[in-house]
Amino acid sequence: MSTLLSFLLTLGVLVVVHEYGHYRVARACGVKVLRFSVGFGKVLWRRQKGDTEFVVSLLPLGGYVRMLDERETPVAPHERGEAFNNKPLWQRAAIVLAGPMANLLLAVLLYAAASWIGTQEAKPVLGAPAAGSLAERAGLRAGDWVRAVSRDGTDWEDVASVTELRWQVTQAALAGERLQLMASNAQGQATRTLVLDLQSVAGQEVDAALMQRIGLGAPYSEPVLGEVKSDGPAARAGLRAGDRVLRVDDVPVMDAAGLRERIAASVRNGVPQPMRWQIERRGQTLELSVQPRLHGEGPRAIGRVDAYVGQPPEMVLVRRGPVDGLVQGAQRTWEVSVLTLQMMGRMLTGEASLKNLSGPLTIADYAGQSVNQGLSYYLGFLALVSVSLGVLNLLPLPMLDGGHLMYYLFEGLTGRPVSELWLKWLQRGGALILLLLMSLALSNDLARLLGQH
């Protein structure tokens, strides 16, 4: 239920802001607005205010602003000056452009608000990179603290959290660029410069697994045991909460993530194999034999020891002041807009997977998750979707705001509007393209929910 309510709230806010942009500029240009609708279909609620009827309709997947227009309904002679089609070209373009721009402006404010509130995020101290990954080849090690990043080695940008680091890596990966990292040990000593060559991952699907493919997994967590279940494999082996694991089968344990992987991979031919653990307890080194238990069946079977492995990563409060927050909001909105266009371009040229396209089910899922994480996380998610909606509507596709802007560009260059015949066929083509995109996005959503992506 919370996921559904979060999705409806997200969609409602974005639709209202988008349509209000059209409405406000239309009124400023002297256009009579007949209806402001949130949703489509059967009207659930209505209120008349002046010349405009405000309604909420049954299907919440969008909205519209209906303006007085001689091409749609007969217009009385004394009202022709208030009709949309009789306004100058620049005013019509401004009214159409106002919707997407309202979404982008909202994104700036939402990102700023999220940064003003602040979020508790993991410090950019990294766990052990995956074997053979880009991160390992670059020289990253468990416990490295990434202090700053640079695209050219000259201009460096401080990194406050793992989230910011992943954002920088994602941008560089999409652009197929090399990213330089300034890293030190966890105490801030022994600073060195490393290079992530991200050209090989350019065009790959941008999802949670992208960081794993690059080699940037979970934040660093010390290989220390937490709660140990009674009568479980760990308890029977004599392990206790607070034990630090040094080695497993004579192989050093770098962090908790590596230890969890070793435990899970202890199954051979469907049978968990015993493991020799070297641990540190109150300054003493002990060696214990641990017999994991089997969890699951078939090829998905893994080993378990029934103990919490790892300590929570070190957290930092990421918060900005009023001016810095606005600057950061504008910068993040621009970066997300550019990345969205880059990804769309790569999907069109086949350089990126169409699996990156998401639909309402994925948005609803992420909305519910972000709400559960707190207000600032939800505001950041709302800003991300608002940017996507604004950029999508600016695409030069018929039926979208960008398509109408293309009509006006043609009119401005030729001195005549697009013919009715062309408009009819362009609208049909645009509807078909949008239908295909929606179908693809929905199929991707279902594949994600079923674990097929």
UniProtKB/TrEMBL annotation:
Specify the enzyme's EC class, one word: hydrolase
A Pfam family cross-referenced in the UniProt record is PDZ_6
Tell whether ATP-binding is among the UniProt keywords.
no
What Gene Ontology cellular-component terms does the record carry? membrane
Q: What membrane topology is given?
A: Multi-pass membrane protein
Question: What is the required cofactor set for this protein?
Answer: Zn(2+)
Q: Name where it mostly resides.
A: membrane
What residue intervals traverse the membrane? 93-114, 375-395, 425-443
Q: Which domain of life is it from?
A: Bacteria
Task: Report the subcellular localization.
Answer: Membrane
What range(s) does the PDZ domain occupy? 195-283
Q: Name one GO molecular function term.
A: metalloendopeptidase activity
Q: Which UniProt keywords apply?
A: Hydrolase, Membrane, Metal-binding, Metalloprotease, Protease, Transmembrane, Transmembrane helix, Zinc
Coiled-coil residue spans: none
Q: Which GO terms describe its biological process?
A: proteolysis
Q: E.C. number, please?
A: 3.4.24.-
The record's similarity note reads:
Belongs to the peptidase M50B family.
- The protein's name is Zinc metalloprotease
Give the species this sequence originates from.
Azohydromonas caseinilytica
